[in-house]
Calcium load-activated calcium channel
Amino acid sequence: MATHQFLSSFRYSDSLTVLGISVCTAVVCEAISWILIYRTSSYKSLKSSIDKASKKLEIMKTETTKITSKKSKTKKIDRVETSLKETSRDLSLFKFKSGAVVALVLFIVFGLLNSLFEGKVVAKLPFKPIGIVMKMSHRGLQGDDSTDCSMAFLYFLCSISIRTNLQKFLGFSPPRGAAGAGLFPMPDPKTN
């Protein structure tokens, strides 16, 4: 009880609470992802095949620019690109099951935080946000001060930045060849 009184008297206690919960949630989500995905042999083989294909594609493209382009070279490049897209799609589908569990955890935590900080200003923005950003940052708050920041906006910003950086730090970021692929890749301009 004394700790709670000390924290509630601290000027930035609500902001730090949201930040701390966001860090803990990111760690829990990455632990879930590690258990369900990153430690499996299927993930490791898909990731290594994406890495190999992207390196091979890079080498083939640099050789094509050095030498005059031939039809057989472009066909080989197209085959490698197609293989890379298919493997990246498979990797995204493989990650989908973990994504559902992580989404459930984030939904529960967000609901808990929403009930704790409902209608409460947790931070002050150092700027006056533009229209759509203000609707997000001022969601659920009373008053006209547009620099007031709700829990939802702060939690959203913290979650995105912390989880992305944690994935990079732990080496769980997507392989570089899989960056643009995914469940809904961009259409290939060559086939359209």
Residues 179-192 have pLDDT under 50 and may be disordered. The beta strands are 123-124, 148-149. Residues 71-116 form the longest helix (46 residues). The CA atoms of residues 181 and 187 lie 10 Å apart.
